[in-house]
Specification:
mainly alpha, flat, 5 helices, about 0% strand
Length: about 150
């Protein structure tokens, strides 16, 4: 019996895998899952640093620990959800812009950042959406420039 992990894929299998992974919906989904994982870790670390909820000193130690862990879990899940949404919107919009323009340059990141920032600030109105668009676009441009400065 041959080892399936050492088998070389055929051209048809490579083409099918490439077709799936090049899909903007799949990229957005994978980015959302990765963002959720990063958000969980990020939220857990930051909730350990932040002391926003007061500790009831009259409660037993067991109850205090339960309260702290419950608070940490809630903050981690909230952060994970936010990171997942942000990553999925950014990745999906960048993929769609890149597919439409048929180029891979900094303008794709700037456009995706603007779409993401504006979408995330939708509840704040037009002025907030414009600020979110500008802020996210500037941040995306800075990151893209830094990552590709040697190219």
């Amino acid at each position: 019996m041959s080892n399936p992990f050492t088998r070389v894929p055929t051209q048809e299998e490579r083409a099918a895998a490439s077709k799936v992974t090049d899909s903007c919906a799949v990229r957005a989904g994978f980015s959302g899952v990765a963002g959720y994982g990063i958000g969980l870790i990020f939220g857990l670390v930051l909730s350990g640093i932040e002391f926003s909820s007061p500790v009831d000193t009259t409660a037993s130690t067991k109850e205090q620990v339960k309260t702290v862990f419950r608070d940490m879990g809630n903050k981690s899940l909230s952060s994970a959800k936010n990171f997942a949404i942000m990553a999925a919107i950014y990745s999906g919009s960048e993929c769609m812009i890149e597919s439409y323009r048929a180029r891979n340059d900094i303008y794709n990141s700037v456009g995706a950042g603007c779409i993401t920032g504006g979408t995330l600030a939708m509840k704040t109105g037009p002025r907030g959406m414009a600020a979110g668009c500008a802020g996210f676009a500037a941040f995306s441009a800075a990151i893209d420039w830094y990552m590709h400065r040697d190219d």
